[in-house]
Amino acid sequence: MPSRAETLEQAARLRSHFEAAGARSVETPILQPAETLLDLYGEDIRGRAYVTSDALRGEQMLRPDFTVPVVQMHMAHGANPARYTYAGEVFRRQEHDPDRANEYVQVGYEVFDRDEPDNADAEVFALIAQVLDGLDVRASTGDIGILMAAVDGLQTSDRRKAALRRHIWRPRRFRALLDRYAGRTPVPPSRTALLAASDPLAQTGPKIGKRGTSEIEERIAALRDDANTPPISESELRALETLLSVRETMPFALEQLRDVAVDLPQITPALDRLEARISALSEHGIDVGKLEFEASYGRTSMEYYDGFVFGFYAERRPDLPPIATGGRYDALTRQLGNGAEIPAVGGVLRPGLMLQLAEVAP
Q1: DSSP string of 202-253, one letter each residue
Q2: 3-state DSSP of 51-114
């Protein structure tokens, strides 16, 4: 295992490499305001981050990643285009897997570019592939934006589409909602009885919790509205299922997705962006004919990405976490920019894991 000193030296080399590519080196505080992260991710973040309390500053979190503070910094006073690099510790709770490190060094490269987003995607991916050259890793890619576009164009209510979009990063919940909205899952008898009652609140017991009567009434009204919404059609459902099953090299994946677009035409603009990205990757020297693309990739671990996503994995060490990950997060800049936004893409590497792989390289 590499020592901490060796890991920091590797991190410094990577940051220098990114600086040579045009990035400005930046620092962010280790303690981050918890409120911002809770607003972005909800209470789920508490299960993955270390939270502490400060009498003056309120709840704080040990930095779970660099992207959020870098976006905040850029949206406050960044130029267009802009490139940043950084290196330092991040902290993640690992109760589900105690063998994984809960503190490790991360190095990143972020690009904010309003004019050439497809080229920026390719630039970030190619630059990270370059620094990983020589290590036994494989790359996986995807595009969350294609599934988002498919959901946004479904012939169903805005409420249902919002629920599906919210759970894109929770595949089991997304699947359960999809089955329910398609009428494949029977409605629970308790809900049927509740909605059939002329005055549902008259038969309820004492109020428990913080919800007021008006909130409960709004929820019942929403359930009634949902019950009256026609199911998602079988043709749309089958097309979504086909989309989610696509796993091929990039050119063949695009070809399959173009076929899906016959039934889901709303994904066509996202596929046009994928096609432009394939071309840009080729121009950056990436062999796209061997690059894996999976339509479902990134749905369990990349919650703020909304477009291109990628990861690099140790070919012979499936027990290791990703060596590098990244993707596009345009919506995050809008959330943190007080109405302003700018296309943005970035990636992070773990120098400690890179050294670990180098030690066992043939």
Answers
A1: GG--S--SS--HHHHHHHHHHHHHHHTSPPPPHHHHHHHHHHHH-EEEHHHH
A2: EEEECCCEEEEECCCCHHHHHHHHHHHCCCCEEEEEEEEEECCCCCCCCCCCEEEEEEEEEECC
Q: Which three-class secondary structure state does DSSP give residue 306?
A: coil
Cβ atoms of residues 326 and 144 within 8 Å: no
Residue 203's CB: how many other CB atoms inside 10 A? 9
Tell me the C-alpha distance between 33 and 41, whole Å: 13
Q: Are 294 and 313 in contact (CB under 8 A)?
A: no
Which tokens in the block code for residue 161?
Answer: 């589409």
Dihedral in degrees, nearest 10, Cα atoms 247, 251, 255, 261:
80
- Determine the Cα–Cα distance for residues 166 and 160; give it in Å rounded to an integer: 10
- Strand 137-143 with 292-294, pairing: parallel
> How many beta carbons lie within 10 A of that of residue 114, not counting itself?
12
Give the pLDDT confidence of 30-68 residue by residue, as tens digits. 998 888 777 776 666 666 778 888 778 888 888 888 988
* Residue 274: CA count within 13 A, CB half-sphere: 30
Cα angle value 92/113/18 (rounded, 5°):
55
Q: What is the pLDDT of residues 242-266, one digit of tens each?
A: 999 999 999 999 999 999 999 999 9
What is residue 332's three-state secondary structure? helix
Q: Which two tokens stand for residue 35?
A: 């409120």
Contact 80, 342 (CB under 8 A): yes
Model pTM?
0.88
Please measure the distance between the N-terminal and C-terminal CA atoms of the chain and give it in whole angstroms: 17
Is residue 121 within a helix (H) or strand (E), and if so which, with residue range? Answer: helix 117-131
Strand order from edge to edge, sheet including 51-54: 31-33, 58-62, 51-54
Residue type, 225: D
Structure tokens that stand for 86 in this block: 């950084």
Q: How confident is the model at residue 209 (pLDDT cuts 50, 70, 90)?
A: low
Do 250 and 293 touch, CB atoms closer than 8 A? yes
Percentage, residues of the chain above pLDDT 70: 84
CA–CA gap between residue 299 and residue 307 (Å, rounded): 11
* SS3 at position 2: coil
